[in-house]
Amino acid sequence: MRFIVMVKASKDSEAGKMPSEELLGAMAKFNEELVKAGVMLDGNGLQPSSKGARVRFAGNKRSVVDGPFAETKELVAGYWIIQAKNLAEAVEWMKRCPNPHEDDGEIEIRQLFELEDFGESPAIDHHRRLEQELKS
C-alpha cells in the first residue's frame, strides 16, 4: 500500500522560514532510514502558499486564486510518499519522524488509491498505459 504523508504548514513555513540545521539533519537521518528500509518512494518540502495558486472549478468555469492562503492549518508544507503493509505500519514509521516544527505540528497520513481499486474499464486501461509510460 502506498500512503501520502503530509506535513501541515505553520506560520513559519508560510513565512518562508527555513528549518534549522538541527532539524534538517534530523530529517535527513530519518529519510535515510526510510530509504534504507525501502519505505520512502518520494518526498519534499513545499514553498509557501504565497508562491502558489489555486484553480477553482464551478461547472465548466475556471478561476485562479493566487496565494497566499489564509488558513495555515489547512495547508501542506511538505510530503512523503511511502510504501507500507498497512496504515498501522505507516503510523509507526511516522511516529519516529522528528517534529517538523519547532513547536506544535501535525502530520496527516492518507492511503493512495491504486488503479486496481477502480475495477476494470476502458478509462482505467488508459490510466494503466499512462502509468507504464511514466515508469519507462
Walk me through what this model shows.
β3 and β4 form a beta hairpin. The relative contact order is 0.25. It contains 4 helices and 6 strands; from the N terminus they run βααββββαβα. By secondary structure, the chain is of the alpha+beta class. Pfam families: YCII. Belongs to the YciI family.
Brief summary of the model shown:
InterPro entries: Dimeric_a/b-barrel (IPR011008), YCII (IPR005545). The chain has 136 residues and is of the alpha+beta class.
- How large is the share of residues in beta strands? 25-35%
Based on CA inertia axes, which overall geometry fits?
flat
What is the helix content?
A: 25-40%
Strand ordering within the main sheet: 2-5-1-6
CATH domain fold name: Alpha-Beta Plaits
Counting helices, strands and paired strands, the structural category is: alpha+beta
CATH H-level homologous superfamily name = Dimeric alpha+beta barrel
> What is the mean pLDDT?
93
Distance linking N and C termini: 21 Å
